[in-house]
């Protein structure tokens, strides 16, 4: 089978498409014939060596997959031919940029019927990050005021929709060129973070979803008892202490596989409450170009590899 590997840290050029042996599923696992695999900023950080999650190369990148079950191990719970999607093994290697991937069945869910594989692959890591932050961490409920950083990005555009599905009022931070897109997702108020200081413009919110490492500034807009959900600063014990001293709750999020949550997210997709946005697709052979596109920092929604 074809798969992407890297033998050294570096830029997009270190990614190579090679022929390798097809994996076999163990007990409780399935072999997925991958139709699409999405990219995430963490992929860039791991490839470059900035975030050494996988140790030293060689290794294969990629976690978000959507495809069809080719083979099922004992007790897997899925049948050959089932369409599934998920984020297996994170933060361990899943080698999702490949024609075939093995995955624990418990970390997958049935693909939402309205979505093709490209759009289903765009969901898992970003949607689970938003879900685990807003639902599991902050327990967002109807009537809450929620501020979302980078609301047009991979996590952000799904977080807006998840918060709205929970009945929240959403204040979204996005560049002016993205305002129409973010309003179309359901945001109640959109602020151009380049022209306006959000810490001056926003007050008394119940939850902030911060994916920008601006935890201390985000704290200033929270009402007493509000929740700071932070992705990049999730291990910052000093920020946690400052949050608690200010009478705010700290919820650091490091996304984990969760097939049950994916199934709930799939139900929201099927009900028309969530729709992933894919800005561009690349064939597997152009994985380096796809990485360069994500690394530009100017993407709206997700970038996906077609396999």
Q: Can you tell me the overall shape?
A: globular
Number of helices: 10
Query: What share of residues are in beta strands?
Result: 25-35%
Largest sheet: 7 strands, mixed
Tell how many strands the DSSP assignment holds.
Answer: 15
Summarize the structure.
By secondary structure, the chain is of the alpha/beta class. The chain has helices at residues 41-48, 117-121, 124-137, 154-165, 179-185, 198-201, 215-219, 237-245, 259-270, 287-295, and strands at 2-6, 15-19, 29-38, 64-72, 83-86, 100-104, 108-110, 145-148, 169-173, 189-191, 205-210, 222-230, 249-252, 278-283, 302-306.
Describe the protein's architecture and organization.
With 307 residues, the chain is α/β, with parallel strands linked by helices. The chain is built from 10 helices and 15 strands. The strands form 3 sheets. Strands 3, 4, 5, 6, 7, 14 and 15 form a 7-stranded mixed β-sheet that branches. Strands 10-9-8-11-12-13 form a 6-stranded parallel β-sheet, sandwiched between helices. α4 (154-165) links the parallel β8 (145-148) and β9 (169-173). The mean pLDDT is 97.
Note the topology.
Elements: E1 2-6, E2 15-19, E3 29-38, H1 41-48, E4 64-72, E5 83-86, E6 100-104, E7 108-110, H2 117-121, H3 124-137, E8 145-148, H4 154-165, E9 169-173, H5 179-185, E10 189-191, H6 198-201, E11 205-210, H7 215-219, E12 222-230, H8 237-245, E13 249-252, H9 259-270, E14 278-283, H10 287-295, E15 302-306
Parallel strand pairs: 8-9, 8-11, 9-10, 11-12, 12-13, 14-15
Antiparallel strand pairs: 1-2, 3-4, 3-6, 3-15, 4-5, 5-7
